[in-house]
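for the record, two folds in this file. i put them one after another cuz i was lazy. first one right below, seq on top, structure tokens after. the second one comes after a little note so u can tell where it starts
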Amino acid sequence: MKIKLILLFLLSGFFAQAQTPKDKQAILDVLETQRKAWNKGDLVAFMDGYLKSDSLLFVGKSGPTYGWQKTLDNYKKNYSGSSGMGFLTFGIKKVDFLGKDVAFVLGSWHLKREKDEPQGYFTLLFKKLKGEWKVVVDHSS
């Protein structure tokens, strides 16, 4: 009985809604700020949307990467210069709040570059820390 109650308590937090409608807009604003920074060629400003911590987790085609600096270094290596970065657009499919300070985002990304147009999907886990929404997990394909 105690285990069932504990499990119900823990699961109920996963399906709580945001405290205010401003939370969803704040998350969308983070993503829009990132998109604009990318399109200006400013990877450091793009990375402002991520938690600046060694615990940041980025999962891409090469597997998991831990840490803000390592993630930035990988972006710099894989998307060098304006020709490598191209023009980024997002398509946000859903924003679900798993708790008052945790949100899940599903979206698509598309890069328009001179020689190609790579695209894919991403899932993000946002956490509200000190009043700011930050990406703590990014799985992009």
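(here's the note) second protein begins now
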Amino acid sequence: MTADSLTGVETGKAGRAVRSRPLLAVGLLLTAGVLAVATWASLVVGSGDAGAGDVVRALLDPDLSDKGQLIVREVRIPRTVAGLLAGAALGLAGAVMQGVARNPLADPGILGINAGASVVVVFAIGVLGLTEPSRYIWFGFLGALGAALLVYGIGSLGREGATPVKLALAGAATSAVLGSLTTAMLLTDRQTFDQFRFWQVGSLADRDPHVLWQALPFIGVGAVFALALGPRLNALSLGDDLARALGQRVGAARLASAAAVVLLCGAATAIAGPIGFVGLLVPHAARVVTGPDYRWILPYSLLLAPVLVLVSDIVGRVIASPGEVQVGIVTAAIGAVPFVMLVRRRNLVEL
């Protein structure tokens, strides 16, 4: 990216043309349409006896005495809303992390942030006995912040500093340790043992609407922070010295980015557990369409990430019907190969 992109000139790295704003706006509308289709499919597809007609009636003229409408309102709507909120939060968090750290491997799951939020939330529920979302969601934020600081501190050791590969390795090690702690707490508490898969890999099943309402304000604030960071992330991607020369307050930008990531990751984990690879894959997919401009990468990530989460959840329901495969397992299966390809790219290793 060149400095021209910060002032709206449509040029890119090495003279590469950046998509025009009208074209990107049309693409954003098309992406919103794809998200609407995925949302509808999430409401219609499932193992229960409820079809498209039940969905329409449940939304427009609900009758909870009808079994199909009851399934839609009590099961599928909360599940779909959870996928929308968690997906949007993780997509934005991943884009912000990759921009502020200039690290194409940054992701809330890979860098251990989701695992940090998860283990502290499980501690709050299983050990401290906090069952209200308004109380334990704060522990999710604390865990996300603590894990981020721990991974960055470990990855910064050595002369090379926090390289992408070192951060990925530090995140993997941290996730493994925190995941073991989560498992240990769940296995010693019979009342929360049935939530094991949820807190281990992430799931949208049986979401409590109260959790969604409690998390919504935090995701909203985090999303506003993230979307406002587009020009600052463009500057930071040029390096700290050039960003300062362009008038950016680097410290304030990094602080705002950290606040956005903690709010988004903490709330997403409280909703759906630790879902991995969403924040890694979606910003890279957005760049294919938008180029390197974070003013467009962020809104595209906001819409594309829920599509990935909802489609993964639908796939998990279909391939194991009448049971299901948790959404975190499906996103991990989808994201494993692209992650290996990213690590193997020579220019990423040399950063």
